[in-house]
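chain below, 594 aa
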Amino acid sequence: MHSYRTHNCSELRETHVGQTVRLSGWVHRKRDHGNLLFVDLRDHYGITQCVTDVDSKAFQAVEAVRAESVICVTGTVVARTEDTVNENLPTGRVELKIEDFEVLSAAQELPMPVFGDHDYPEDMRLRYRFLDLRRHKLHQNMVLRSEIIASIRRRMTEQGFREYQTPILTASSPEGARDFLVPSRLHPGKFYALPQAPQQFKQLIMIAGFDRYFQIAPCFRDEDARADRSPGEFYQLDMEMSFVTQDDVFAAIEPVLAGVFEEFAQGRKVTPTPFPRIPYREAMLKYGTDKPDLRNPIEIQDVTEIFRGGGFGLFAKLIEGGAVVRAIPAPGAGALARSFFDKMNDWARSAGYAGLGYINIKDGVPGGPIAKNLGEEKTDLLRTQLGLGDNDGVFFAAGRPGDAARLAGMARTKVAEELNLIETGQFAFCWIVDFPMYEYDEVQKKIDFSHNPFSMPQGGLEALETQDPLDVLGYQYDIVCNGVELSSGAIRNHRPEVMYKAFEIAGYSRQDVETRFGGMLNALKYGAPPHGGIAPGIDRIVMLLADEPNIREVIMFPMNQQAQDLMMGAPSEVHPKQLRELHIRVVLPESAKA
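prediction:
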């Protein structure tokens, strides 16, 4: 017989009754029924109920063992009586009668119990992550993550992609987020950087002649945490293809994402391919964001012209100064009490805005200050344009185009949540396409890149030389699911002369480009194929499929909001000898000395 187990804790069935078996695992729970003592034994695979009675030589040892101790039990498989069968467990029709018992590793008193679904403070859960991971839901999330990654790898390989690894120690990039720097011992005063993404390397792989690349790639960015982004590091499905158009990239990645989501959807619907494509400017108008949640049926509309020139004086005056007015329909809200509209107005103010105007239509009669001042004719125009019924409402966001879009987008989500309009039980995908290459930076008073500076502009060099820069669009695209941006991607700029011109428009000299991006630029001068790709976030994919609101719940060992690993004590001070070897002296800010 094996030293530790003949079966795992999810294997035993009625066919094993009468057999002598050995199991090892953790004491999940103990239940004392007087003369009988029950132990739920748990391992990675499941739970088996074990039992001993007061006459057994093992009884006292089992009685003394603490929860979460690791034990080994040997005994006979017996059938449970019909009234004690547990249909919720695969092993629920049998139990193991303990004949021999050994403690392999005794557990101290637990700082937090594993059994049960109680919630605990984040700092405790992360400090004792190894205990947290024993809890069923979190354990299953990690198994799900592994299965999703295996499925992605299989689907990519089946499409002719090959997995190649790119460096972890690389050069610092002056663009993008902050780098994590690694000092060089052999080259004093110089630093490596951990890659924010394998972007330049995967393009170089294409230039080197490898046609289809992918990698489950670790990425490192010194950014603040939020619900859908872990601080420090994350993983992405990094992929790149040669001799492709934007349509080719979509055709390659859509079956992978749709297939993975369908495989793990558990009854939830998945948008059929091809996914809808929404131009950036249309998305900002209709949804107030470039990450729209298409489960929400509300669409924003521009109603600036209806308010122009009079009626509701506040909006008319704002429009004269260059503002716009966006309308957010609220189906069925007219039948609600006025407190609903007041609550929405208070919500907008709490978000830093002046408020939300509104019209509430009750039994066909428009109400509220805006309807009263706008007049019957223009109110009817509004109702017609927006398709408002006799008991609907509508909210208004007025301001400069960017501000009005942001408020309208937030209000669209808030209204849908309050009115229970968001269709759950589905994964709604879309592409956001046709991003502008440039935007005007109001702070710097200059034109700058708006999305990805290394993308191919639509129209190529001719567009850069003949069009207003703010009208030039890029072959850039985002893929969004349920309002979560899974990834940005682009068809890359593979021609040096286009790269020089694109950066010139953003204020970079030829010398600037050669100094900052010399490695990539030099490679492009030796024959680069047209290429493009994308890199959907693994953590976010798993978060959606696991139906978890926080990305921490799908990462094995996440950091806290302050980018600290409480379990391992990172970041930490290091020995002075290590600093001397690296030619580094630490100079703390005054705030850290206090």
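The longest strand covers residues 20-33. The CA atoms of residues 397 and 416 lie 16 Å apart.
thats it, cya
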